[in-house]
Design brief:
By secondary structure, this protein is of the alpha/beta class. Helices cover about 30% and strands about 25% of the residues. Strands 3, 5, 6, 7, 8, 15 and 16 form a seven-stranded mixed beta sheet that branches. A six-stranded parallel beta sheet has the order 11-10-9-12-13-14, with helices on both faces. Helix 6 links the parallel strand 12 and strand 13. The radius of gyration is 20 Å and the shape is globular.
């Protein structure tokens, strides 16, 4: 089978399209004919060695996938050949990745793809959707009627946060850096979309939520805690999902006097049961028309190295040239 793989960690050009043996469906695992994968920041960190993980070599890059079940191993109970499925959490913690014609994954990391949802849409929502759900539902316990602020509502995770918060019944404030991206945020459901390049963001947040926001979702790699705590309502919750090397000052006094809480998490540390609960809501909201994938572009497998460079330019160097997810079209 064709696979996008590396022989050792390094730059995006380390990724080569090579021929590898087709994996097998062993005990508890499912062999998927991959139709679509997507690119996430964590994929670039693992590929580059920025985040150290045990890697089977050659290592196939990628966490997300969607496709059709080709075969199932003994003891698999939830799927059968011909089922359409999606999943994430591959290419991490020693597991082989997904950007290949076939991938084998434990059934605990796979979910049924709803009718009417394409493999491209399912792959694009996989990691970012589960990330958004874990932060909003498991950790922040967002409730209907509350107000949420998410820094950057047009990106992969941010766009999922906006839509899920609306599905829960919350009011949403977000930011973006262009009129096109602001329009997308409003289309996704944000009541207030602020241009962080030209508007007074904090003043506009306070005007809409004078008592403070109940949940502050930080997507930036260098959080400003003084600012965030000032914008939080009493008993507000702040969610962190980025900034591995960040060491910013923290306003202990204002934080505890307000009774706030801080939640940091990495999606791949969540249990299979936690991720399955998220996947069930993701599927339901997609069927109800409340959640859709925010796809910037779909590229063929042959362009995977360029896709990784583009993701890095936007994640690390803040190029601002992506609005949503890069999807890799693997097969039809």
């Amino acid at each position: 089978m064709l696979a996008a793989a590396i022989e050792k960690t390094g730059p995006a050009d380390s990724i080569k399209i090579i021929d590898l043996p087709k994996p097998e469906a062993k005990d508890g695992s499912v062999l998927v004919r991959v139709e679509a994968a997507s690119v996430n920041p964590i994929d670039t960190y693992v590929r580059s060695g920025m985040v150290a993980m045990p890697l089977p070599l050659p290592f196939i890059v990628g966490s997300d996938m969607a496709g059709t079940v080709e075969a199932v191993g003994p003891d698999v109970k939830r799927f059968k050949p011909g089922d359409r499925v999606w999943g994430t959490n591959q290419g991490l913690l020693g597991r082989q990745g997904t950007t290949a014609e076939y991938a084998a994954a434990s059934e605990e990391w796979l979910y049924p793809t709803p009718d009417g949802v394409t493999s491209e849409q399912a792959a694009a929502l996989a990691l970012v959707g589960i990330t958004a759900h874990l932060g909003l539902v498991r950790d922040a316990k967002l409730k209907a009627g509350e107000t949420l602020f998410v820094n950057g509502g047009s990106g992969g995770v941010g766009s999922a946060v906006v839509q899920m918060a609306k599905a829960i019944g919350a009011r949403v404030i977000t930011t973006a850096g262009s009129e096109e991206k602001l329009a997308l945020c409003r289309e996704l459901g944000a009541e207030v979309a602020i241009n962080y390049k030209s508007d007074d963001v904090d003043a506009m947040i306070k005007a809409f939520a004078p008592q403070g926001v109940n949940v502050f979702w930080e997507t930036l790699r260098e959080p400003d805690f003084d600012r965030a705590v000032a914008l939080l309502a009493p008993r507000g919750r702040m969610i962190l999902m980025a900034g591995r090397d960040a060491r910013p000052p923290f306003p202990v006094g204002p934080f505890y006097v307000k009774g706030c809480s801080l939640h940091g998490f990495a999606m791949f540390n969540a249990t299979p049961d936690e991720q399955r609960a998220a996947a069930e809501d993701i599927n339901r909201w997609q069927c109800e028309g409340k959640l859709k994938a925010n796809i910037d572009r779909v590229v063929p497998l042959s362009e995977i190295a360029a896709a990784h460079r583009l993701q890095e330019d936007n994640t690390i160097h803040k190029a601002g040239t992506l609005t949503g997810k890069i999807v890799i079209k693997v097969s039809s």
